[in-house]
Amino acid sequence: MHRDKGKLLMIFFIFSETFFFIALIIAYVYYRNFSDATDTVAKHLDAFRAGIFTLFLIASSFTLLFSKKALLKKKYTNFKLWMALTILFGVIFMLGQVTEYIGLYQKQITLEKDIFGSSFFTLTGFHGLHVILGIIALGILFAMSFGKLKKVAFSGINGVDIYWHFVDIVWLFVFYFVYITPLL
Amino acid sequence: MPNYYFLKITDVDLIEELFVYFLIVASIIFLLVVFFTFFFLFRYGVKKRPKKPSQIESAGQAESVLAIIVTIVIGVFVYLTIVTMEKVQTIPENPKPFLEITGHQWWWEAKYPNSGVVTSNQIYIPTGKKILLKLNSADVIHSWWVPELGRKMDMMPGRDNYMWFYADKEGEYLGTCSEFCGVQHARMRIRVTALNPEAFEVWEQQQLRPVATTNTKDFLKGKQLFETKTCTNCHAINGTDFKENIGPNLTHFASRKRFLADMKVNNEKNLRAWLTNPQDVKSGAKMPNFILSESEVDALVAYLNYLK
Amino acid sequence: MSLFINIPEDKEPLPSLKTGRGKLLWIASTDHKQLGIMYLCLALFFFVIGGLEAMAIRAQLALPDNDLISPELYNQIFTMHGTTMIFLVLMPAMVGLATYLIPLMIGANEMAFPRLNAFSLWMTCLGGMLLYFSFFAGGAPNAGWFNYAPLSENNYSSTKGVDYFLVGLILTGIGSIGAGLNFITTILTLRSPDIKLNMLPLFVWMMLVNAFLMLAAFPLLNAGLFMMLIDRQFDAHFFIPSTGGSAILWQHFFWAFGHPEVYILALPAFGIISEVIPVFSRKPIYGYKFVASSSVAIGLLSYSVWAHHMFSVGLSNAVNGFFAISSMLIGIPTGLKVINWIGTMHKGSISLSIPMLFAIAFLVDFTFGGLSGISFAIVPIDWQLTDTYYLVAHLHYVFLGGSLFGIFAGIYYWFPKISGRMLSPKLGKWHFWLFVLGFNLTFFLQHILGILGMPRRIYTYPDLPYWKVLNIFSSIGAVFMFIGMAIFFWNIYKTLKKPRTAVANPWDAWTLEWSTPSPPELKNFDEIPQVHSRRPLWDLNNPDNPDKKLN
User: Fold this and answer.
1) Is A9 in contact with C243 (Cβ distance < 8 A)?
2) DSSP 8-state secondary structure symbol assigned to residue B212
3) Mean pLDDT of chain C
4) C483-515: per-residue pLDDT in tens?
5) In chain B, which residues have their Cβ closer than 8 Å to the Cβ of C282?
6) SS3 for C85-98, per residue?
7) Which of A3, A9, A23 comes nearest C253 by C-beta?
8) Contacts of B88 in chain C (CB under 8 A)
């Protein structure tokens, strides 16, 4: 009997990535609570707008769930449909992130501005990097589902979907600490 | 709230006592480990034993009993640790330091808020009183440590740390910067001179007097060079317009027995070598080589040697 | 929903050089045994370099006011010495032994992810090469292996050395995370079905706990390294106090990694000693359950002690007190293992092979190092002795007396299995005595130097009473260690030229790796052996007195 080592690998990889994001979030929270400076980035953030894009990311987790269910039932057309939607929502989220960055840079809120600039862009930037990697992985699964490689997509989905949900959950924490807590 | 008070046992002695207790317990443990290791090694050597000895395994009693004993011992040390920490490191709510020391790469700046004395590297304190030090840094992390007079405390840029300092007897006490701070960390040493309270007051008054001046040709030339060669861009001399503290304050420089953060004796030969090329003496120091001619060095030495 | 589902085993073997014998094909290997050997070669190579750096340090420090090595060069050397020994010697040596042995010890034919395995090795290699390239790129990192801010930031360290440090360690860190992932998945999914978790050889147990530590600690380091890299390359402000950042935050991140890291370096040594002492006492380990569970306790507790590296930073008494308590507590599971090891020797039948010699030296010297560590947990003592040579003595006692002696024991023990030849015991004895005596001479005296007030990380010191004589003898000890190591390398070289004559089980040991030939075939096991206890080969050879059946 062989246990699904691929899924286990992904679970433990996520375990380690969790610590990475915890460290980045701690930096952000530390500056807010333990330094004398006031959060200069927070007042320029549009929590409502970010919330909309968050909804897209959350939706993408659901579409991924449907996509996986379809794949396990060997309903390949549905799988491709839901997967395409997942990728689309992921891309929309990234576009939201990128346009937000551009908006902030135009207001002179940059990485080098001060500690809040540094920690905001680093934290959301690394998260965005993880989203992009996830989109690429989803894209590969999507592409593989055309033609002879269907079987590979079958075993790949178990790992990738955990990763995507993880990216989503990390974003919820980031969203809370970065966008919501200044408003409380 | 006074920033110094009289006491009966010094903090340093207290810590030493704690260390002795630790040494006793640790030695007992270590000797037991060594004893049993070697006793078993020789008693149960393969030559005297059956090839297949009885395959005993532990049921956990030995470990549990020892765990309990060790936990109790640790409990005692936890108590002693906390009590000693409170004794050594209790700082009043609104601390009013007796002496403020700022670490620079690679020299010490000292200010006495009560009297207004500002000096560098050569630090004096009165005996018989526990004094409050305020420590910070102008650049990277340094650490203040004079083992016979107090604990070690890091000097963090952007943060003030406080600690108590106490000298029982008059004398010179050696210490060192204790946090790696760059190329000349090794040469950022400390020499604290403790004087009895009357002598200390005399020293403070001397420090507050304006610098001595004279009219010899070399002195005046040196004084002029001190300005034109941009020494004043980094060095302050009290009572003049020169107030920069990028380099050590040179007021009363001539009355300091050592310089370069206790690296060299303050005599003409060493001063000359330093002025001729600082990088040869303490490479990496922030003072560049001004490429002074010999007569310029003569003049500057004459000037600095007069600053008593 | 269960974590484990049945999927059929791969029919196609992964690409590897199962047929070729060319030396260059090693580079393309994904075979765990070859990768394990390559890790060990990497470790030994960097050990020579790190050792030469140590010799340079001791040469400069032998005399007061010495000018053999300039401060600029010295600061690079001591930074590289520490970084090399930890990330390029001890880590790869442990990971290498584990990579080689874990599948053999659990009845598996390969690690769970062979390509990830190769990736981890080459990332470690690349990280090491980048780190050393810094010497040619304007100067090696010179801010200490702990790289405190703001000294390590742009305005105080303007050469690229620190950047090479940051990137080099990010890469080796990724390699370590990959190795950790592989260990966990291999141990959890590829065990022979008979082997329950409480039957794993203790080396495997330690590596399992270790793998979790690697997964949880290296990301913290990587986060800090990335943040400092962003500070230096993109003018951010994470750790620069003058623009709002926090130098203390760097210390928190670094030590939150750094303390688990020292346990990552210690646990495998504990595992090796837990294999060696039973075999050479001819008895099972005294208290398997305790050794296994105390390692888990150490793993968990190691995350609660990090600020004991920061006692002199000026944190509050309450904070310092908490970390004092946690640091003293962690001494309990660590120290009590010594009972288990000594208890194994009790009423045993002890033969002093070279592995056993190193195990004995480990017992004495690691205990000493552990005890001096406890003195630092007593905060006021730390306020006098931290950042002195007393601390340098402590860390070398645990790293050398603990980790390195464990590695030496492991290398002598498993050398016949890996290479098919026995290392010469005669040369082994010379290596042992020269190195152990030299080691104790060098580092015992440094305790005294620290108490006398000598700080660490200094390129020279003034001629104060006894400092000169203690430093001279300390440097003499280093010469002994150097000669001992030369003999060790000579031993390996000479032995590798001999024909392969080792038997499968030269030490009459009991774990599964000894049931394979020496060296094992490319496919470890043709059939998975039956295992009913922790010592399957003992059961096989003693059918009338087998160990208690655990499955």
Assistant:
1) no
2) P
3) 93
4) 999 999 999 999 999 999 999 999 999 999 999
5) 46, 49, 51-53
6) HHHHHHHHHHHHHH
7) A23
8) 380, 383
What are the tens digits of pLDDT across the range C299-309? 999 999 999 99
Tell me, what's the pLDDT at C14? Answer: 47
Is the domain covering B217-306 a CATH 2.60.40.420 domain? yes
Tokens of B49: 């034993």
Chain B residues touching C377 at Cβ < 8 A: 81
Q: What is the pTM of this model?
A: 0.94
In one-letter notation, the amino acid at residue C238 is F
Out of A145-149, B60-64, B154-158, B276-280, least confident range: A145-149
Query: Looking at residue B2, what is its pLDDT?
Result: 37
**What is the band of C163 on the pLDDT scale with cuts at 50, 70, 90?**
very high
> Any idea which fold A5-33+55-183 has?
Four Helix Bundle (Hemerythrin (Met), subunit A) (1.20.120)
Backbone phi, then psi, for B204, in 5-degree steps?
-60, -45
CB contact at 8 A, B286 and B264: no
Band (pLDDT 50/70/90 cuts) for residue A73 is: confident
Query: From its phi and psi, is residue C232 left (phi > 0), alpha (psi between -120 and 50) or beta?
Result: alpha
pLDDT of residue C3: 47
For residue C16, the model assigns a pLDDT of 47
Contacts of C3 in chain A (CB under 8 A): 3-4, 7-8, 11
Cβ density class C80-101: b for 16+ within 10 Å, e for less: bbbbbbbbbbbbbbbbbbbbbb
Q: Judge: C281–B44 Cβ closer than 8 Å, yes or no.
A: yes
Query: B145, B176 in Cβ contact below 8 A?
Result: yes
Phi, psi at A75, each rounded to 5°: -90, 85
Choose among B173, B200, B198, B176: nearest CA to B188: B176
d(CA B107, CA B156): 15
As for the ipTM of the complex, it is 0.94
| Cα-based torsion angle of the residue sequence C439, C445, C450, C453 in order, rounded to the nearest 10 degrees | -140
Q: What is the DSSP string of C266-314?
A: HHHHHHHHHHHHHHHHTS--TTHHHHHHHHHHHHHHGGG-GGGG-GGG-
* Percent of chain C residues topping a pLDDT of 90: 87
pLDDT at C74: 97
Taking the C-alpha atoms of residue C354 and residue C429, their distance in angstroms, rounded to an integer, is 7
Buried b (16+ CB within 10 A) or exposed e, C467-497: bbebbeebbebbbbbbebbebbeebbeebee
Query: What does DSSP assign to residue C10?
Result: P
* Phi, psi (deg, nearest 5) at residue B123: -110, 130
Spatial neighbors of A149 by CB under 8 A, at least 6 apart, are: none
Identity at A112, one-letter amino acid code? E
Nearest partner of C54 among C466, C439, C411, judged by Cα: C439
- Go through the domains of chain C in sequence order and give each one's CATH number: 24-541 (1.20.210.10)
Dist CA C62 CA C475 (whole Å): 6
CATH 2.60.40.420 placement within chain B:
217-306
Contact B104/C at CB under 8 A: no
Tens digit of each residue's pLDDT (9 = 90 or more) over C29-77: 899 999 999 999 999 999 999 999 999 999 999 999 999 999 999 999 9
Which residues, in sequence order, are CB contacts of C227 under 8 Å at separation 6+? A24, A27, A118, A122, C236, C238, C239, C253
Min Cα–Cα distance to chain B from C335, Å: 9
In sign, the C-alpha dihedral spanning C284, C286, C287, C293 is negative
Compute the half-sphere exposure of residue C236: CA atoms within 13 Å on the CB side of its CA: 24
Q: How many residues does chain A have?
A: 184
Task: Give the three-state DSSP class for C460.
Answer: coil
- Nearest partner of C346 among B51, B66, B61, B38, judged by Cα: B38
Q: Do A9 and C230 touch (CB under 8 A)?
A: no
